[in-house]
Amino acid sequence: MKSVIGLMLLLMVFSSCKEENESNFILNGNIKGLKIGNVLLQKIQDSTLVTLDSIAMDGTSDFQLSTSLEEPQMLYLYLDVKDGSTYDDRIAFFAEDTIMSINSSLKNFEKDAIIEGSKNQDRLAVFNENNGKLNKQYTDLMKRSMTLSQKENPSSEEIESLNKDYDKYLKKRILYAISYASVNRDKEIAPYILLQEGFDANPKLLDSIYQLMPKKIQTSLYGNDLSELLKSLEDN
What we know:
236 residues, alpha+beta, Immunoglobulin-like, 4-stranded mixed sheet, 4-stranded antiparallel sheet, 7 helices, 8 strands, 25% strand
């Protein structure tokens, strides 16, 4: 009788562990043109990229990866192929505990990526698209800076004009991040965006947006990081 009870307890423990380890996130996809290579699902943990799942591709361009997510967060789809390229090989996306898909091409892995299945990712895509327009301004500013640096005696007016335009660009970028995070404060991307783009903003303004976030967002992965940032800003 004791042995039967013991066996039942072991089965219950095994079943419990299995349920805890079951994947609640599945990523399906296709990489057009890919025949041989490795596709990895990764996340950043303690400033290091950690592989959560991987698949060796051999003759097919379809893949499926999975992992267990405690909450929505940024993940990365890494394409490891021996093509001599050291760029255009990693797609960042905001994952949720659901089934998502990423379809792309071997030729333009990052640029051609179509990501579906996550509301946070949909909102982040809109933010990144609009932010890309601001990046063009930054590129123009860098070109002006390089041109000035090549001059033997750039005028003070030119330098002052460049500095003013850069300040305007920076304020516009920060204000857009703050505004977008405020509108989407009920989504996990809100604290993430503030951490990535709004960290130079007035701490009181950041805190006011944080206080408006629902409790589940405040205590999320990036909500906790934002809380720590606010505390460090207060101490300084």
